[in-house]
Design a protein that fits this description.
Helix content: 55-70%
CATH class: Alpha Beta
Number of helices: 9
Strand order of the largest sheet: 2-5-1-6-7
Number of strands: 7
Largest sheet: 5 strands, parallel
Structural class: alpha/beta
Radius of gyration: 18 Å
Order of helices and strands: EHEHHEEHHEEHHHEH
Distance between the termini: 15 Å
């Protein structure tokens, strides 16, 4: 099995890169989706979060909005939350990779903003960073999430700079395309080339 890590800031185009891999037969694991599933279903993780952040457990469920308010613009609180959640997400990723392996899936893509910071990149054979100009990301976030420009810009500024991905990834896919379809076509071309190089090793 060949595991490809896909990382980059919000609005850069990670989901499009993963979609391109899926068209080539890859299994996909979206860490953000998995995190939200665990936030609803994993009693141990819920208990740890509730113990760390008072007032977020309401009627046995984590109040996501309240939790977001606590960690938003509070790096120390966000780090505490990440220390709890990363281990549970990592365990679930490992379990799902094993499941894909048993099904004979040969390529798996792990999609995660914090792929490197969480240690998940260590599971990967190769790490691909998806980057895009800040203004493009802001426009995409505004359109996708119906946010003001100020809020979208604050999200971009709160994340890792482009240099972080260039320093820590094996490859960089730059998404400065006008449409998602154009970038997806570029990604398919890129991953096809990577796949051929792997088979020729």
């Amino acid at each position: 099995m060949y595991i490809i890590g896909i990382t980059g800031g919000t609005g850069a185009g990670k989901s499009t890169a993963v979609k391109a891999l899926q068209t080539l037969g890859a299994g996909a694991l979206d860490c953000d989706v998995i995190y939200h599933e665990l936030l609803s279903d994993n009693a141990e993780m819920i208990s740890e979060i509730a113990a760390q952040f008072s007032g977020v457990l309401i009627n046995g469920e984590i109040d996501r909005r309240r939790l977001s308010e606590i960690v938003w613009n509070n790096p120390a609180a966000l780090q505490e939350l990440n220390n709890i959640t990363h281990k549970y997400v990592n365990e679930e990723i490992t379990r799902r990779i094993t499941s894909y392996q048993s099904q004979g899936v040969q390529i798996v893509a792990i999609d995660a903003i914090a792929l490197i910071e969480s240690g998940q990149s260590e599971k990967c054979d190769v790490v691909v960073g998806v980057t895009a100009p800040a203004e493009c990301r802001v426009s995409r976030i505004m359109s996708r999430d119906s946010l003001s420009r100020e809020h979208a810009l604050s999200r971009v500024n709160a994340q890792q700079p482009e240099s972080f991905y260039k320093d820590n990834c094996d490859y960089i896919l730059e998404n400065n395309y006008d449409t998602e379809a154009e970038f997806e076509a570029k990604c398919v071309e890129f991953f096809n080339k990577m796949n051929k190089e792997k088979h020729n090793e």
